[in-house]
Amino acid sequence: MNIAHCLQRAAQRCGPLTAIGYGTEVWCNYSQFAAMAARGATWLRQQGVQPGERVALFMHNRPDYLPLLWAVWWAGAVAVPINAKLHPKEAAWIAAHSGSRVIFADDEDGESLQSALREEAHDATVEARIEHVFDEALPEAAVAERAESDAAWLFYTSGTTGRPKGVELGARQLRWQSMGLFTAVQAVEPGEVALHPAPLSHGSGMLHLPYVMYGGVNVVPQSHGFDAEECLALAAHWRRASFFAAPTMVKRLVQAVKSAGQRPRGLATICYGGGPMYLADLEEALDVIGPHFAQIYGQGECPMMITALPRQMINHLYEARPEGWREHLASVGVAQAMVEVSVRDSRGRPLAVGEMGEVCVRGDVLMNGYWRQPKATAAAIVDGWLNTGDVGRLDAFGFLTLLDRSKDLIISGGTNIYPREVEEALLTHEDVAEAAVIGRPDAEWGEQVVAYVVVRRDVTETSLDAHCLGCIARFKRPKHYRFVAELPKNNYGKVLKTTLREWDSRITTCIT
Ligand code: AMP
Known about the structure:
Blueprint: H1 4-14, E1 18-22, E2 25-29, H2 30-46, E3 54-58, H3 65-74, E4 78-81, H4 88-98, E5 100-105, H5 110-119, E6 125-127, H6 130-133, E7 151-158, E8 164-170, H7 171-184, E9 193-195, H8 203-213, E10 217-220, H9 228-238, E11 241-245, H10 247-260, E12 267-272, H11 279-288, E13 293-299, E14 302-309, H12 311-320, H13 325-330, E15 334-335, E16 339-344, E17 357-363, E18 369-370, H14 374-380, E19 381-382, E20 385-394, E21 400-404, E22 410-412, E23 415-417, H15 419-427, E24 432-442, E25 446-455, H16 461-469, E26 480-483, H17 497-511
Parallel strand pairs: 1-10, 3-4, 3-5, 5-6, 9-10, 9-11, 11-12, 12-13, 25-26
Antiparallel strand pairs: 1-2, 7-8, 8-18, 13-14, 14-15, 16-17, 17-20, 19-20, 20-21, 22-23, 24-25
Helix pairs in contact: 1-2, 2-3, 4-5, 7-8, 9-10, 10-11
This protein binds adenosine monophosphate (AMP).
Adenosine monophosphate binds next to β13 and β20.
């Protein structure tokens, strides 16, 4: 089944109902939404896009993002939503790797993306004049035939090699994860609202799907991103509003509500995830904002669907305080209904309750595989079990506590940063001999990027910063530099990041 049928059905059932909001305004209803997707599909066909071909979206959240995404599916093509915060060079690499024929881009990125694509020697149409795509003179295409397991979404996540990997998801996974959100986070019916302060290329894009399936309203903030006051005002305006938020965003919301001096109105569920939420922060959020929180633990390879702490469970734990309530609130919850979760040792053997090991997950929602990377797929999914790279333990009640994640990944503000990518950027600076990047715990961001650098001759932090800005996304560049004579290494010459983290914690302890 083509996922686009979900929009077609919603238009049949809920045609005149609001489908997309922009700020406090109604942007379109379901009939208009489906008609735009159908005309957009015709436009894509005219560009030569055939079913199964890839179309990328390198755009910030905006109301026309959604009809574009659904136009790609309507045409039977595969959507490649790219994080809008990436550097155009990084976006061009993803477009080339996925073989995207068309790339929808924000106006301001069009030119730099074109030149980055030339460097990649990748020929694609970059389209920033989105109004042409929905031109009313275009005929409406029929929904293209697609199988349930055909690729629909390539979600580019980074890998240990430093290059992003394209997680291939079909209609099957998109529908399963929607059922998970529907049952574990928030039931949706017409009038129920999803706000999108978080990127539609990531968790918010997943969250919007059940709202289309069940005739809810998807609202894009006018800031096109996250602004705590705006988010709260939109919830009060639209009412029954839910949204996805990284833990950093939750902290900002708490500050905004404290400054406003009154509890927010119109909130249904704030679904947090994407990085660790500390217990003290959750307790404060529940006290200040109220009983509106649910948690999801997932990863691109098993989207939004490993474990969950549904809202009712969080509220029961916090109000009734049964035995173990603190540990359970600090956990990532229990396995979602459609998957099995197991904690295993390094040889793949299931561990007993309470033992720490790698979190593994099995179920129909697992990715088809990494796009054109069969070896990486075979390493990630063994005997049907996905190795998440996260370390955790299960307790006797089935609650999963994450203790660490695959050692080196840095999560800052809910966004993954892979040290290798930053190290590679630093190493292209002529004065840098060696570089190792780690995450430093940070109360606001979760972690901050710190670079340990061995230099060939004197170099300033400003020069390294400018260099990074030229080749990687702003949010990935180091916030702090430490210049050292040599990096700690093992006998094989491999840098010991654990030792570096120890050094770093000693230095920061001395400073604070
Ligand atoms: P991504 O594939 O970009 O969504 O990143 C997935 C990774 O983010 C997971 O493997 C975890 O390490 C981390 N993560 C996701 N959700 C949570 C959560 N609720 N609590 C802690 N870490 C999380």
